[in-house]
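User: I'll paste a sequence; please echo it back and then give the predicted structure.

Assistant: Echoing your sequence first, then the prediction.
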Amino acid sequence: MTEIKKASLNDLVVITELAATSFMESHGHSGPEKDIKNYIDANFTLKTFENELNDPKNNYYIIYYNNKAAGFSNIIFNAAYKSIKEKNITKLSRLYLKKEFIGLNLGKALFDFNVELSKQNLQKAMWLYVWVENKPALDFYKKAGFVKVEDTFFKISKTHYNPNYIMFLDFYL
C-alpha cells in the first residue's frame, strides 16, 4: 500500500533520517567521505527541516510504502530561475527516495503527485537541479520530459563542487 501525506513538524525526525540516508546512498561516492559527511551534518539537521517546514513556501510530502517512510519531496510554487523565462513555475527542490524502495515506482508516484499539485496551483512548468552523475535520476527526469537548461555546480564543501544540470519540464508541451 502506498500513501502520500503532507509533512508537518511532527515528521522532523522522519524527514531528517530520509534526507541523510538517501543523500548518502545517491551521492556518498561523489566526493571525499569527510566532505560528504560534513555536508550531511551541516544541512540535514532537525533545525534545518524545522525552519523549512515553518516556511510557508515549502510543500513537503512523505511517501509511505506498507506504512514505512520511503521518501519525501519538497516543491516551491512560483520559484523563478534566472535562465527560464516562463512565469508561474514550480521548483522541485527535493525528491529523495531510500535505495531499498527504488524499483517500486514510488519515485514516479511522488513525482506525479507533485506535478498534479503544481497544476492545481496554476503552475505551468517545473525545474530542478540534478547531479550529472546520478544516472538513475537523470534518466528518470529525461523520461518524464525534462530538458537540460544549463550546467551549474552544487557546493559540497569549500573545495568540492559536483557538476549539476538545471532541467526544465513544461507541463503543456
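The first strand starts at residue 2 and ends at 6. The CA atoms of residues 77 and 121 lie 8 Å apart.
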